[in-house]
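Need residues for this backbone.
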């Protein structure tokens, strides 16, 4: 629910500040909020050359993802992004992993990928596609965000063999926080004193609760239920993204987002089907 609501809250934050300041605030506040949960495990991490390379790569693509995430929200609808990115990202990740590992894709999974492509094209309204339309709607930014998060997911998967997943996430965010700090103009930090309670309340939801609370709870759920059962709850993220965008931003979801999202949901079900 919190991950879904964060789309609407992030959209509200994007009306107050520029992309680079939001990037830094998201990473920095997430790092601060996660310290109590990872402090002990940090001392046990062994920083091999391979792990350091994974962290560097993940930091780049984490910034890449969040940059296009906020650009998409500045130009487009939070409800669309919440459905598109959260349904298309796992499909892209599955395809990239199949290419990296050079594994054969079962017939059922090929059908799933086909449904996913159809769903993405319907949500993007392929018949209206032009570079200008994609930029004006923010859809191109959401597509780039989905691609970026897929790479972060894959790097995280490889890195989890060398460090606890939650600690790894913390290290990614710490690196991204450091890099993004130097991307912010000093005047943007000064302007923060004029931000009102609405901004900071949504920062708490979108940046702090989403990472420190929702992520920790999710990993706890994975430990108790197993990854397959726990991941099924991710199907609810777009639902809460739509509901919160409607309640908080008065957005109405388009017919083609619903139809394309249904195709993507079907694809995700088949991909996760054992």
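Answer:
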């Amino acid at each position: 629910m919190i991950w879904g609501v964060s789309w609407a809250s992030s959209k509200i934050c994007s009306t107050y500040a520029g992309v680079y300041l939001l990037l830094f605030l998201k990473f920095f506040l997430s790092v601060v909020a996660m310290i109590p949960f990872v402090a002990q495990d940090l001392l046990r991490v062994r920083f091999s050359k391979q792990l350091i390379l994974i962290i560097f790569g993940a930091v780049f693509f984490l910034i890449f993802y969040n940059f296009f995430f906020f650009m998409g929200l500045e130009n487009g609808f939070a409800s669309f992004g919440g459905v598109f990115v959260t349904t298309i990202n796992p499909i892209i990740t599955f395809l990239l992993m199949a290419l990296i590992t050079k594994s054969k894709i079962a017939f059922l999974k090929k059908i799933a990928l086909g449904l996913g492509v159809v769903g993405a094209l319907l949500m993007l309204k392929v018949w209206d596609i032009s570079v200008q339309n994609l930029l004006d709607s923010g859809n191109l930014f959401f597509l780039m965000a989905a691609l970026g998060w897929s790479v972060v997911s894959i790097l995280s998967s490889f890195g989890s063999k060398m460090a606890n997943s939650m600690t790894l996430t913390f290290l990614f965010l710490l690196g991204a926080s450091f890099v993004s700090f130097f991307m912010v103009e000093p005047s943007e930090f000064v302007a923060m004193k004029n931000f009102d309670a609405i901004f900071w309340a949504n920062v708490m939801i979108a940046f702090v609760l989403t990472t420190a609370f929702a992520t920790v709870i999710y990993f706890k759920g994975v430990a108790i239920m197993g990854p397959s059962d726990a991941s099924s709850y991710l199907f609810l993220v777009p639902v809460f993204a739509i509901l919160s965008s409607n309640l908080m931003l008065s957005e109405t979801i388009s017919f083609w987002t619903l139809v394309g999202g249904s195709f993507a949901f079907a694809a995700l079900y088949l991909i996760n089907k054992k």
